[in-house]
Write a structure and sequence with these properties.
The protein is of the alpha+beta class. It has 15 helices and 6 strands. Helix 7 crosses helix 8, helix 12 packs across helix 13 and helix 12 crosses helix 15. The longest helix is centred in the middle third of the chain and has 50 residues.
Length: 403
């Protein structure tokens, strides 16, 4: 007999009670769903039992039961199961369970079937939402942990941590074999220095393409982009050229300088290569090297000059301090000498680089000879002048007074 709504069944009518869900049957559903989704069946946990309970009795999962679903979401993130694959696992399991659910799907009462379907869909929605949220939270936490560990290992490698055994163990998950030779390149911006983290992400892909994904690390440290690559071997790629070419593509092109240390073996070799790369950058800036990439091997002579500061000060004082008496001070004459030597001792090339006439350049060189007694056309005197000019740049003279 039809109810008062004209043909709709009475919702208060008790549902037929199907037999309890069989554990073996649920295990079969889980295995089939896992095969469909390509994800471990263990990630379902109590999910299928919750679905069966909802279909049979209309019950909703408790807060604790949903919390347990969340633990499987975190487990999936830890095990590297993609969220899309895990969601497919849950949806496939729900579809298979509903299709094979005994009792309810065979009921002739449409209201019973509709009510069971509503309850099941509620559980699916709640469970998937909790699972995905837990998966995302764990993934974000994992990224934060990995980034923290990455920064720590970079700091310790570049500092040369005394705990070599611990450093070797911590470096292994990042694909670094510290028994091998490694080389460090540093890039720093001569402009505003913005966008280092974004550049590190794009630069890492380029470096991996050039050097492979083993013994490669790209990170930021202070104002530097740090690139660690395997040293030596038969690779044709020059890490300095690779890094410079990539960072010059973006905004601020031309405002970057790259320093490259030499390759060394062992954990302490990384710290040594890093110090060389950093010193190369400093020397490149102080000596106003025009090259975008400064290799440590190319500035060894400047390091030799800078080793004995007392002798360097004596050389600059003896050879160049008379230039202070020139009109305009010593700086214009120093610039002329530095450019003249940098262009191979060719006055016309120096004039072109300095945007001066050849006559102006030769006049300045004559003033240097008159004031110091050293002439650029005398090989021995030219060598002393050149060494003194380099020493002045290393000591930042005349901007900074000689000690």
């Amino acid at each position: 007999m039809n109810g008062p709504q004209g043909g709709r069944a009475d919702r208060s009518r008790p549902r037929p009670t199907p037999p309890p869900a069989d554990e073996a049957w649920l295990a079969g559903v889980a295995a089939s769903a896992a095969a469909d989704a390509g994800a471990p069946a263990e990630l379902l946990g109590e999910y299928l039992s919750l679905l069966a309970s909802a279909a049979i009795s209309g019950g909703r999962p408790s807060r604790d039961e949903l919390a347990r679903i969340g633990t499987y979401g975190r487990r999936a993130a830890t095990e590297g199961v993609p969220p899309g694959r895990a969601v497919n696992l849950y949806l496939s399991a729900a579809w298979r369970m509903w299709r094979e659910l005994p009792g309810v799907v065979r009921s002739s009462d449409s209201e019973v079937v509709r009510g069971a379907a509503d309850a099941v869909l509620q559980v699916v929605g709640d469970a998937v939402a909790v699972f995905v949220e837990a998966h995302q939270e764990e993934r974000r936490a994992s990224i934060r942990r990995e980034e923290s560990l990455r920064r720590e290992i970079i700091d310790d490698l570049l500092r040369g941590d005394a705990d070599v055994a611990g450093l070797v163990e911590r470096a292994e998950p990042f694909g670094l074999d510290l028994t091998r030779s490694h080389q460090v390149a540093l890039a720093t911006s001569t402009g505003d220095g913005r966008g280092h983290d974004f550049l590190a992400t794009t630069l890492e892909r380029v470096v991996v393409d050039a050097f492979g994904d083993r013994d490669v690390l790209v990170a930021t440290k202070e104002s530097y982009l740090v690139v660690l690559v395997p040293g030596g071997g038969d690779r044709d790629a020059d890490v300095g050229a690779v890094v410079s070419r990539e960072i010059q593509r973006g905004r601020g092109a031309g405002n970057w300088r790259v320093g490259v240390g030499r390759p060394y073996t062992g954990a302490y070799g990384i710290a040594r290569s890093y110090e060389e790369a950093r010193e190369s950058l400093e020397l490149g800036a102080r000596l106003d090297v025009g090259a975008a990439v400064v290799h440590a091997r190319d500035v060894l002579v400047y390091r030799v000059l800078g080793r004995d500061q007392a002798a360097l000060v004596d050389l600059v004082r003896a050879v160049l301090t008379p230039l202070v008496a020139a009109r305009g001070g010593a700086e214009p004459l120093l610039d002329t000498l530095q450019t003249y030597f940098a262009t191979g001792g060719v006055a016309t090339a120096a004039a072109r680089r300095m945007h001066l006439s050849v006559r102006a350049v030769t006049y300045r060189l004559d003033r240097v000879r008159d004031l110091t007694g050293y002439a650029v056309d005398n090989p021995e005197q030219a060598f002393s002048l050149h060494a003194a000019v380099l020493g002045a740049r290393l000591l930042d003279w005349p901007t900074t007074a000689l000690p």
